[in-house]
Amino acid sequence: MGELDGLVAVITGGGSGIGAAAAQAFVAAGARVGILDVHPGEYAAPASLPLTADITDGASVEAAMRTAAETFGGIDILVNNAGISSVGTVEDNDDAEWLRVLDVNVVGFVRATRAALPYLRRSAHAAIVNTSSIAAGAGLPKRALYSASKGAVHSLTLALAADLVGEGIRVNCVAPGTADTPWVARLLARTEDPAGEKARLEARQPMGRLVSADEVAAAMLYLASPRNGATTGISLAVDGGMHGLRLPR
Ligand SMILES: NC(=O)c1ccc[n+]([C@@H]2O[C@H](COP(=O)([O-])OP(=O)(O)OC[C@H]3O[C@@H](n4cnc5c(N)ncnc54)[C@H](O)[C@@H]3O)[C@@H](O)[C@H]2O)c1
User: Fold this and answer.
1) E-assigned strands of the chain?
2) What are the residue numbers of the active site?
3) Does domain 8-237 have CATH number 3.40.50.720?
4) What is the whole-number distance in angstroms between the Cα of residue 185 and the centre of ligand 1?
5) Which of 64, 65, 146, 225 measures 20 to 30 Å from 55, CA to CA?
6) pLDDT digits (tens, 9 = 90+) for 166-199
7) Any idea where the domains of the chain sit in the sequence?
8) 184 CB less than 6 Å from ligand 1?
9) pLDDT tens digits, residue range 106-130?
10) Which atom of ligand 1 is nearest the CA belonging to 83?
């Protein structure tokens, strides 16, 4: 028996990186999974359903949730994971860039949650897992906008958990450290010294290496699973010890 047997999950940003690893982990645990992404990819597994949608477009998100629910007979788990990066100080990014990133990283989570809630309410094992970041709880240089967006995800997770606990819907988030995904590969490729920059990112984490997408997916599976039915309103760090440890230099 898989721990998600009989359950249906929709994973935003499931076409790449952490979301794709979560889709694989959830299918392996017995779930059927809707992969909601602007580029959901080609999934051959009968348990996965590509759902082309943009979380900045409420109508496309609602249509994707409806398709997932009609195809699989409901939705039990929502993983709000699709997000975009932003580099810079408050002086580097203009208002348009702030609104663009917050529209995906914060309001996009709200749109997907709103669209999934009517289905989650009909589930006996409803759970929402949001992807926050180490940036929500630690000050990182040149990440003002991105950090503000992930701090909002953390606070939104707590508020949603409070609003929904009475309805039996659990809401938690994961807070990954720098994870080895195409996202980070793109960031590194834009630097003058990608190998040196990667070594600096690895050294920043007490374990001396990047987090893997599979490790974040395992934490998402833990938070989504009915086996952990008493866990709500938490942020689970998957960050190589970066947030909590202070090592001598
Ligand atoms: N990689 C890291 O170091 C790291 C660390 C902490 C948190 N995170 C968070 O993890 C999440 C996933 O990151 P990743 O590293 O797997 O990135 P990724 O770029 O590999 O994957 C992100 C996916 O989201 C999709 N997406 C982006 N905008 C979308 C939109 N408007 N609508 C629908 N889909 C959209 C992309 O198409 C892509 O498939 C993000 O929320 C990110 O902030 C990443």
Assistant:
1) 8-12, 32-37, 48-52, 77-80, 127-131, 170-176, 235-238
2) 146
3) yes
4) 12
5) 225
6) 999 999 999 999 999 999 999 999 999 999 999 9
7) 8-237
8) yes
9) 999 999 999 999 999 999 999 999 9
10) 41
